[in-house]
Amino acid sequence: DRSPSRGLGDVYKRQTLGVTGRRAEEALGRANIVVNRNAIPYDPKPPRVASGLRLGPPAITSRGFKQPDVGQVASLILRVLNDVGNESIESQVSEEALELTSHFPVPGIDA
Q1: pTM of the predicted model, to two decimals?
Q2: Strand (E) or helix (H) holding 53
Q3: Residues 52, 50: Cα–Cα separation, whole Å
Q4: Is the pLDDT of residue 92 over 90?
Q5: Neighbours of 62 (CB within 10 A)
Q6: Tens digits of per-residue pLDDT, 44-84?
Q7: What whole-number distance in Å separates Cα of residue 96 and Cα of residue 102?
Q8: Contact 81, 35 (CB under 8 A)
Q9: CA separation (Å) from 40 to 2, 19, 20, 50?
Q10: At what angle do helices 21-30 and 67-81 cross, to 10 degrees?
């Protein structure tokens, strides 16, 4: 059975926020969190809008993030997505994201 309800629990949770992948990508970008909008299986939205997001775990694990740090990133993402367009929250999250990432240098890039 290839129904859209199989294996998409986390996607459906994100959809309940009522945010397209495009709007989420733009809002998170303003908060210094880089993600990509991504089509999901059976996506009703066109690819340039999309209903999903793609996160890049290697971007944080290669920098040495541990489970608690990843949880903090998830919390920052949810704060932005729960109130897309709120400039105050985007600004606060941006500062927190920069502070968090300042402790984890990018491999191969000298500070």
Answers
A1: 0.81
A2: strand 52-54
A3: 6
A4: yes
A5: 13
A6: 889 899 888 888 888 888 999 998 898 899 899 999 999 99
A7: 10
A8: no
A9: 13, 14, 11, 7
A10: 110
